[in-house]
Amino acid sequence: MYLMISTYRAPLEQVDEARTAHLAFVDELQRAGVLVSAGRQDPPVGGILLLDVESEARAHELLADDPYVRQGLADYAATGWLPTRGVLADWKSPTA
Question: According to its UniProt record, which protein family does this protein belong to (predicted)?
Answer without folding.
Answer: Belongs to the YciI family.
